[in-house]
Amino acid sequence: MAQISMEVPGDERGTLLAFVEAQRTALREAAQGLTEEQAASKPSASELSLSGLLKHAAGCEEGWLRMAQGETEYPGGDWADGFRLVGDETMTSVLAYWDGIRQETEAFIAAVPSLDDSFPLPPAPWFPQDAKVSMRWVLLHLVEEFARHAGHADIIRETIDGTRAMG
Known about the structure:
Helix content: 40-55%
Strand order of the largest sheet: 1-2
Structural class: mainly alpha
Radius of gyration: 16 Å
Shape: globular
Order of helices and strands: HHHHEEH
Number of helices: 5
């Protein structure tokens, strides 16, 4: 079961990273114990699957990390493929990929001089023109993104086999 994020006294980075990790864990745990077929199933009216949500969350984190690191183009690719496993992708490979991104994110955030440091958002129809966001904003956005999808994951998992996230 996902752990409650604890504040790290005097350490904003640690506290924010703990909240990001708690939501990552909630998402990942929703798929534990499922077969590849169950994780890829879409048991509700939604087009979402657990494996697709995990892939999307990992890709989302990587996208924000790369932009924060200074990559100037918005990470692209087929939007729909970002929500489903394709080719030889498996739950194991997606989770391993996400583990690597998690480690990169934590190392990068530990190394930035200040959470107030910012970077420009690349041109995209969904971003305001000439906007910048801070490292703090990125971490809070990841909490928001992962929490939203953890809720989706809870519903999907309960629909698959009755398993409930909170017992």
